[in-house]
Design goal:
- Its EC number is 4.6.1.24.
- It catalyses: [RNA] containing guanosine + H2O = an [RNA fragment]-3'-guanosine-3'-phosphate + a 5'-hydroxy-ribonucleotide-3'-[RNA fragment].
- Belongs to the ribonuclease N1/T1 family.
- It is a single chain.
- The chain is about 25% helix and about 20% strand.
- The protein is an alpha+beta fold.
- The chain has one domain: Roll (Nuclear Transport Factor 2, Chain: A).
- The protein is globular and about 35 Å long.
Length: about 130
């Protein structure tokens, strides 16, 4: 247990009140004006990879990303795209929004991309 967690637990036991620290939002990626933390990116990556590894093969997400824009991703392989949502929830259907995590079939993050600021149906890097 980290010191801050132990301190909070001790405070709760002694006073019955815990002052929760303000969450610091460190942006791992910014798509347009939307800040995504590393935990949000990881959650979307894990959800997309799990669905892909279970063999979901239809027109929904995740699906193969063909990299028509020619991004130079740091990992190789077949790429898949999966929505990352600005409200913090993991995508489970409906409108995918503008932003995507890109990953390969080895569960490695390739990058985060967006339609925001791109021409037509293209993507740009976040």
């Amino acid at each position: 247990m980290q010191f801050s967690q132990l301190f909070a637990l001790t405070t709760l036991l002694v006073t019955g009140v815990v002052a929760m620290p303000t969450e610091k939002r460190d942006c791992a990626y910014t798509c347009g004006t939307v800040c995504y933390t590393s935990s949000a990116v990881t959650a979307a990556l894990n959800a997309g990879y799990n669905l892909e590894s279970w063999g979901e093969e239809d027109d929904s997400y995740p699906h193969v990303y063909h990299n028509y824009e020619g991004f130079d991703f740091p990992v190789s392989g077949t790429y898949y795209e999966f929505p990352i949502l600005r409200d913090g929830y993991v995508y489970d259907g409906g409108s995918p929004g503008a932003d995507r995590v890109i990953f390969n079939d080895n569960d490695q993050l390739a990058g985060v991309i967006t339609h925001t600021g791109a021409r037509g149906d293209d993507f740009v890097s976040c």
